[in-house]
């Protein structure tokens, strides 16, 4: 049985930390093998019609002097990007590197799913919206620093109660997505 939306939002709001000053150290949540195994059992694919074999490992590649902590999935512009898990839209955000992005928190608050370089958002998508795995969040594009090749930049972050919606420990999505099933 699904929890009422107000309850899920209240639980997630309680999980968000108070604002920290820049001098406050950031937490480093640990993703255990059991955490990742449990996540893998429920994770779907982030692009409609995507075959797991079409996903290539781009996690940990060098990118402009930093480590790439996501998987880039090439797809035609306008292909629907879908929620990989049940959750809550924590933020719709536009940035120079990510372009149009969605941050989704899992219903248990333990994970952040980050979808970037979207061409546009799904009609009616808003912050605090409850989403189910397979719901359309947006569409593949090239916003931000994506370059000319339409793709989804997809990241998974392990959160703890002190983590903000944008914080956590990056977990390699590639093996999880290769094992995921389409919904």
Quick summary:
The protein is of the alpha+beta class. Helices cover 15% and strands 31% of the residues.
Keywords, please?
single chain; 183 residues; alpha+beta; nine-stranded antiparallel β-sheet; two-stranded antiparallel sheet; 3 helices; 11 strands; globular
Can you walk me through this structure?
- By secondary structure, the protein is α+β, with helices and mostly antiparallel strands.
- It has three helices and eleven strands.
- It has helices spanning 5-15, 33-42, 173-179; strands spanning 62-63, 66-67, 71-74, 80-82, 87-95, 99-106, 111-121, 130-131, 136-140, 151-158, 169-171.
- The strands form two sheets. Strands 3, 4, 5, 6, 7, 8, 9, 10 and 11 form a nine-stranded antiparallel sheet that branches. A two-stranded antiparallel ribbon has the order 1-2.
- β6 and β7 form a beta hairpin.
- The protein starts with a helix and ends with a helix.
- The mean pLDDT is 85.
User: What order do the helices and strands follow?
Assistant: HHEEEEEEEEEEEH
Q: How many helices in DSSP terms?
A: 3
Give the amount of beta strand, in percent: 25-35%
- Radius of gyration (Å): 15 Å
Class by alpha and beta content? alpha+beta
Low-confidence parts: none
Distance between the termini: 19 Å
Sum up the overall morphology in one term: globular
Please give the number of β-strands: 11
Please outline the major beta sheet.
9 strands, antiparallel
Helix content range: 10-25%
Mean pLDDT: 85
């Amino acid at each position: 049985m699904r929890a009422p939306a107000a309850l899920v939002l209240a639980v997630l709001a309680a999980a968000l930390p108070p604002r920290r000053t820049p001098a406050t150290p950031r937490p480093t949540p640990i993703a255990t093998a059991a955490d990742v195994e449990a996540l893998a059992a429920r994770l779907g694919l982030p692009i409609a019609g995507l075959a797991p074999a079409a996903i290539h490992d781009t996690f940990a590649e060098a990118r402009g002097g930093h480590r790439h902590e996501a998987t880039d999935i090439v797809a035609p512009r306008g292909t629907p990007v879908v929620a990989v898990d049940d959750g809550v839209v924590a933020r719709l955000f536009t940035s120079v590197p990510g372009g149009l992005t969605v941050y989704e928190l899992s219903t248990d608050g333990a994970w952040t799913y980050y979808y970037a370089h979207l061409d546009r958002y799904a009609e009616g998508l808003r912050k605090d919206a409850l989403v189910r795995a397979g719901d359309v969040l947006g569409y593949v594009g090239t916003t931000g620093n994506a370059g000319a090749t339409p793709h989804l930049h997809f990241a998974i972050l392990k959160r703890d109660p002190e983590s903000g919606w944008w914080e956590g420990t990056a977990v390699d999505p590639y093996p999880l997505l290769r094992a995921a099933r389409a919904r």
